[in-house]
Write a structure and sequence with these properties.
Elements: H1 6-11, H2 14-17, H3 19-31
């Protein structure tokens, strides 16, 4: 997922605080 990559982490530092959420969204998008 775009927001899960390095650029996404830089743009959305919140994902660094909640990496599990980022991974969860990535899995959902990949599954769907």
């Amino acid at each position: 997922w775009m927001m899960c990559n390095e650029q996404g982490i830089r743009a959305y530092p919140t994902l660094r605080i909640y990496p599990k959420v980022c991974i969860g969204l990535e899995i959902k998008l990949t599954t769907v």
